[in-house]
Amino acid sequence: MSLRRPILLTCGEPAGIGPELAPKARASGVPFVFMGDPRHLPEGTPWAEITTLSDPLPDDALAVLRHDFPAPAIPGQPDPANAAAVIEVIARAVRLAMSGEASGICTLPINKEALKRGAGFAFPGHTEFLAHLAGDVPVVMMLASTTVDPPCRVVPVTIHIPLSEVPRSLTPQAMDQAVRITDAAMRRDFGLASPRLAVAGINPHAGENGVMGHEETDWIGPLLAGLRDEGFDLSGPLPADTMFHAPARSRYDAAICAYHDQALIPIKTLDFAGGVNVTLGLPFVRTSPDHGTAFDIAGKGVADADSVIAALRMAHDMAERR
Ligand SMILES: NC(=O)C1=CN([C@@H]2O[C@H](COP(=O)(O)OP(=O)(O)OC[C@H]3O[C@@H](n4cnc5c(N)ncnc54)[C@H](O)[C@@H]3O)[C@@H](O)[C@H]2O)C=CC1
Ligand SMILES: NCC(=O)COP(=O)(O)O
C-alpha cells in the first residue's frame, strides 16, 4: 500500500488496550506512524523513532513519533497525570493532518471519564473535539462495517447524550445536516455515485401513523419529503427494529439513526471485531476502531486488532480517494 504521507495512529488512553494494539496493527500493511510514548508499548516491541513524517518508515519495526507522557501506563488504571498528554497527542495529530504532513489520522480509544476527571476534557468524545479543532465544522459520526454483506453503515444523529435528552436534541436541523454530510461523504470518501440513505424513526414502529409517537408524522416525514424533492435518495422514516437484517440493508448504503444505541447496537452486534468509526465532514481523514479502552483486558495481550486494522485500511482508502 502506498501513500505519499503516512496515517498517524494516536495512542489514546495508555492504560487501555491502545498501546498493545499498535504493534499488532502493522499487519494492516498500511503505512502508519504511532504517536505516543514508546515506554507505554508492550515490553519487547520493536520500534524505531522518526522525527518527521517525511522520514522513511522502518520495515521491521513500529514507527514512532515520540510524545513523552509524565507517568507510566498501568493497564486498567488511568493516571490523571497522563490525561492532558492524551489530549495533546490528538491535537498534534490534527495539526499534522491539516497541514498535509500526515495523510489522515486513526485514533486509538480514549477513556472519556479519565480525560474529564484528569484534565477537564470538555468534549463528549473525539468526534466533537476534532470538529472543534478543525474550526467548529459540522460533522457526523458514522460506524461502518464492510466485512458484513451487505455492508452496515450507521450514523447516529444525536450521540453522547442521555436518552432523556434525545427527543429535544433530535431536531430537523440536526437530521437535515446528517443527511447532507452523509450523502456527500458517501460520494467523496466511499466512492458511491448515487448513495441511498435510510432514515430511522425514533418511536416503536416509526410511530405507526401517530399512535405510538408523533415525531415521524410531525416533522421527520415532511423533512424527508423535502430532501427527496432536492434529489436525495432517501427511504423512511423506517421502524428501527426491522431495518438492519441483511435483506433490509441491501436496500440502502447508510442508515441515519435517531440516537447512539439505535445505531451502534446493530453494527456492534453484527461485526464488533471489524467495525470502524469514521468522522464524516472533517477536512482531513479520521477513522478509529469501534471499541473502547477495554480496561478489563488491558495489558493481557488478548485484545483483538481486527477493528484497528480495518480502521487503518479505511483511512488509507479514504486518503487515496481524496
Ligand atoms: N473511539 C473511542 O475513543 C471510544 C472510546 N470508548 C470509551 O472506552 C471506555 C470503555 O467503554 P466500554 O463501553 O466498556 O466499551 P469497550 O469497547 O472498551 O469494552 C466493551 C467490552 O468489549 C471488550 N473489548 C473491547 N475491545 C476489544 C478488543 N479489541 N478485543 C477484545 N475485546 C474487546 C472489552 O474487554 C469489554 O468486555 C469508555 O470510556 C468509552 O467512552 C468507547 C468507544 C469508542
Ligand atoms: N460510542 C462511540 C464512541 O464512543 C466513539 O466516540 P468518539 O471518541 O469517536 O467521538
Automatic annotation (TrEMBL):
Presence of the UniProt keyword NADP in the record: yes
Database matches in InterPro entries: PdxA, PdxA_fam
Cofactor(s) the record lists: Zn(2+); Mg(2+); Co(2+)
Location in the cell: Cytoplasm
Protein name per the record: 4-hydroxythreonine-4-phosphate dehydrogenase
Enzyme class: oxidoreductase
Other known facts: The active site is located at the dimer interface.
Family: Belongs to the PdxA family.
Functional pathway: Cofactor biosynthesis; pyridoxine 5'-phosphate biosynthesis; pyridoxine 5'-phosphate from D-erythrose 4-phosphate: step 4/5
